[in-house]
Amino acid sequence: MADIELIPGGTLQTETPEEGRQLAMKLARMIIKATQPDADERTRQRAIYSTEPGMMIALGQTVAIEFSTIAAANNYWK
Amino acid sequence: MADIELIPGGTLQTETPEEGRQLAMKLARMIIKATQPDADERTRQRAIYSTEPGMMIALGQTVAIEFSTIAAANNYWK
Amino acid sequence: MADIELIPGGTLQTETPEEGRQLAMKLARMIIKATQPDADERTRQRAIYSTEPGMMIALGQTVAIEFSTIAAANNYWK
Amino acid sequence: MADIELIPGGTLQTETPEEGRQLAMKLARMIIKATQPDADERTRQRAIYSTEPGMMIALGQTVAIEFSTIAAANNYWK
Amino acid sequence: MADIELIPGGTLQTETPEEGRQLAMKLARMIIKATQPDADERTRQRAIYSTEPGMMIALGQTVAIEFSTIAAANNYWK
Amino acid sequence: MADIELIPGGTLQTETPEEGRQLAMKLARMIIKATQPDADERTRQRAIYSTEPGMMIALGQTVAIEFSTIAAANNYWK
């Protein structure tokens, strides 16, 4: 786990909501990377979940939760 | 991911709760689009999840989480 | 999506917690309606999920999340 | 839906955390009751989910979400 | 439900985060106990979910949600 | 449960968001450890969930929820 940067850039602060959304996707992805370090295996899994609507919806929930934290951290970019 | 606008309009602020709700649906959809860029494949998946009640309920959870963030960002339109 | 009112009444404000709860159920239902506009198909799905305890529990989660937003919007009716 | 009281007592305020917890369980149950008004069918479903650990865990999530709202409504009984 | 204490000790306040975490696990467990009062059946279910990674992960979500409420109730032990 | 430290270090406070993210992963892991104390069994389960995309996504949700609490506890490291 030590070798992987779980938060690219090391901060929850972003300039815009759009960048906050991109960060939410990255955070979700880095947890998967930290849990499954094998790149080929991750590629194999991506081929599965990206064609399974139930998994896609679940992935959407994960990103939504990550984003809620990032949005609060940025005071909703108000 | 760079080519897709994850937040249409680039802001979480909306005029009304109704527009906030529409934005929540769009946010959920854009994550799916960013993860699965193939439009035909997304159409295929939509035909599946829109006829599976369990997936429909899960989709409802995703939108509910997105909306909670948008509602907070708009101070609940109070 | 344009033709469906996602928030009946257009506001998150309700007089009572009971009405807030009713609104939470309506919000969850309108997302399903917006995603699956075919009334017969929705009726078919309702017959399925209303007899599947796992789906009923998942529906309860969706309503609980919607309600948490509505409750905050009403300052918990304090 | 009109005939069922979704929040027994009509308020989120409780005297104690323990009563808040009981209310959370009732809220979860009333959504199921409103969605499936047939008492015999609910009894049948209860026999299923109370012996399925995966469903029991999911039920726990629903109650946990309901409770988070009730706890906030009571300012955590501080 | 009346015979089971859903919150051991009757309060969300704890001295330390560690005790808060223990309370979160107890809260999750008491909901299962209140829903399934038969101790032998609970033991049977525990043997199932403790060997099913998907259920273990779902249990972790339940505890995480319970803990978020307890942490807020204790002002994050700051 | 008494023998396992559920929060390594005993605090939710971290120096950086990155360390907060690491703590979130540890919190999720300690719940699994407390529920399934057998190390060999946990290793067996890890081999399963780390190759199942649906479980990986669910794990991501758990970490996201834990992180939301840790982030709030640290006032989002602002």
What key attributes describe this structure?
flat, mainly alpha, 78 residues, homohexamer
Written description of the protein model:
6 copies of one chain form a homohexamer. By secondary structure, chain A is mainly alpha-helical. The first copy, chain A, has one domain. Helices cover 65% and strands 0% of the residues of chain A. Chain A has 3 helices and no strands. Chain A has helices spanning 17-35, 39-49, 53-73. The longest helix of chain A is centred in the C-terminal third of the chain and has 21 residues, at 53-73. Chain A is flat and about 40 Å long. Chains in contact: A-B, A-F, B-C, C-D, D-E, E-F. The A-B interface holds A 16-18, 21-22, 25, 50-54, 56-61, 63-65, 67-68, 71-72, 76-78 and B 1, 5-7, 10-13, 27-28, 30-32, 34-36, 41, 45-46, 48-49, 52, 54-55, 58-59, 61-62, 65-66, 68-69, 72-73.
Q: Short summary of the structure?
A:
Chain A is built from 3 helices and no strands. Chain A has 78 residues and is mostly helical.
Number of helices of chain A: 3
- Poorly predicted regions of chain A are none
Q: What's the Cα radius of gyration of chain A?
A: 14 Å
| Major sheet attributes of chain A | none
The percentage of residues in β strands of chain A lies in: under 5%
Largest binding interface between chains: A-B, 27 and 34 residues
The class by helix and strand makeup of chain A works out as: mainly alpha
